[in-house]
What we know:
The structure holds two protein chains of two kinds.
Chain A: H1 3-32, H2 39-57, H3 61-87, H4 92-114, E1 129-131, E2 135-137, H5 138-160, H6 162-172, H7 174-179, H8 184-207, H9 216-231, H10 236-256, H11 262-276, H12 280-286
Antiparallel strand pairs in A: 1-2
Helix pairs in contact in A: 1-5, 1-8, 1-9, 1-10, 2-3, 2-4, 2-8, 2-9, 3-8, 5-6, 6-8, 9-10, 9-11, 10-11
Chain B: H1 2-17, E1 26-32, H2 39-58, E2 62-64, E3 69-71, E4 73-79, H3 84-98, E5 102-104, H4 109-115, H5 117-122, E6 126-128, E7 144-146, H6 151-167, E8 175-182, H7 185-200, E9 205-213, H8 221-230, E10 234-238, H9 241-253, E11 260-262, H10 270-276, E12 284-287, H11 296-309, H12 316-334, H13 339-348, E13 350-352, E14 360-362, E15 376-380, E16 386-390
Amino acid sequence: MSTLANVLLFGVLLGGVYAVMAYGLGLIYGVMRIVNLAHGAVLMLGAYAAYALNAAWALDPLFSLPLVLPLAYAAGIALYAALVRHVQGGPPMASLLLLFGVGLCARNAAYLVWTGDDRAVTLSYGLATVDIGAPVPLTKLLVFTIALGATAAMWALFKFTHFGRAIRAVSQDAFAAELSGLDVARINAHAFGLGTAVGALGGVLLSDLYVVNPEFGSGFLLKSFCIIVLGGMDSMLGIFAGAVLLGVAETAAGVYGTSALQDAVSFVLLVTALVVRPGGLPSLIRS
Amino acid sequence: MASRTCAAALVLAVAAACGGPRADEIVIGATLPITGKESRAGLFFRNGYTLAIDEANEAGGVFVRTLGRRLPVRLALLDDKSDSTTAVQLAEHLVNVTGVHALLGTYETKLTFAQSIVPEREQIPYVSGGGGASEIFGRGFRWIFGLLSSVEAMGHTFMDWLAAEQDAGRLPRPLTVALAWENTAHGQDFRNGVTGRAEAAPDRFAVVLNEAFELNAKDFTPLMLKLRAAGADVFLSDAHYPDFVLQHRTYLQMGLSHKVTSYGPRGTEAAARETLGAGVDYLVSGQWWSPALPYAESRTFLANYTARFGDATSYYPGLAYETARTLLAAIEAAGSLEPDAIRQALADMNRDGAVIPGRRVYFPAATGYQIDNPSVLVQNMPDGTARIIHPPDAVTGEAIIRTP
């Protein structure tokens, strides 16, 4: 397989990883206009949940999703009801600081429970590959497939269900939605819960690929910001496209330039997008 | 008269309340990452320090010639929480409030680099076993002594071993080397060690790939694609544990193989074998101490440490133990608790019978008082053991050179 084909193939697969990493952040911002600085902690806790179930019962992280996602959903609702609702609609700094604090608390709690040791799930297929012209890690293929499925599921949720339409209505005009009879507070709580569950999904899937420790989420949080800016901040399809673009750009930078530049690519794209196209890829397509 | 007595009593009471050193004990201060990111290493270091000090106390203490008697040793240990700022603040507290006679270093290059400013400024001897980057010792400091050979020296050790394998006819000459290193002081040192030896012997080595990567990288596919294209005989990388796992997993998934593969100090961890399975077989790693070292001193230490604390499967315990032993030996050699005398004893030290590779402790001024012993190279075997393949005085088995 040619170098360019390798770059495209592995870049797209990396994009799938980045998409699941960013969905939770994008969902909460897109619906509630809250920048969730606890998103890194959600990824970290989702990964630890998968690790804990794997270590205790040899449960594959993918099979832990039916346990982890409802718990994360409930935790998100509880967090919203207890804390977030008090700062929503207020000065942006309040929600930023609150969720930053929540993230710090979660990280320190993780140190207490699991210490700073690096942990990894044990998978029977952890090194397995699928040959599609080049040996492709099975774990990355699975993550990519689930990322596609999650994108489709959320698109369908927001387009075809009453719940999804209600969330869209509240995100577009909360006052009008309230006047229409929607319980805005309840919908916001469920939206936050959904965003947390999607974030936990990302964490569980990332545990298949990466070593987990309490600092796990912080590196992903910065990239997630870049992706939601590229993706247009409130479009799941846009986030997926932004993630793929970033994945291909990073892989190309590493192959044609130097590996040390890979991380810099996300920040170059972030700054470029903010300056040239703050609306991200969707605005580029619309224009 | 009564007021003077009361004043003196008040001063003594305040001093006692502040935990200052009593005249009848030696107080050694230390901060370690007991909690936080580096807590695993911190706990090993605490155990190593504790064992060395307890052994000294069980032998009656350290003889201080100017006092004509043995004094017990007390370790004043604080948790720096794996944070550089906290490590500095606590070091200042130990020196200025607790009034320690000397300091043992914390763990990890970044913390050691930050903290070492304090003993240099306060002119208190500081012996470190937890920071290997040469930048710590390249600042012209006089009070900082390092028991961890530089990572550059580890790079030298790898290349010296490869040269020995060439001389034995087991590796080709010239040997092509692919080198990858994390973009930190640690990685830069390793790169300098490898490229330095390669440049000095172009008939032996050709570095065909020399690539930096960022710490905590999210994807090593581009690096592995370049590695495959380079077609080298050996692959040397220097990485922290999370990057090692991701990098080697990607390496295996891409079906790569070299005559010798190494990730610097990584590869012997039990967790690595759990995660990567047989993928860690035949990896060569450089260590600053190994429980497999055959030296009598090391075997004795290992038995005592294991009996008391259990697990000693990393290099931290031996290094920590020898660091504390070195400081205590310096105090005894100085014959005094005066900082200048202890510092001079450290600078003059040439002590045999150490548990670390080379079995000798010395601090050359030319390296900024950082020891320059070789590392011990170990190779993972399929049965889960690790055999020592270098230095020659510690070899426990022949290295396996793979056929890619």
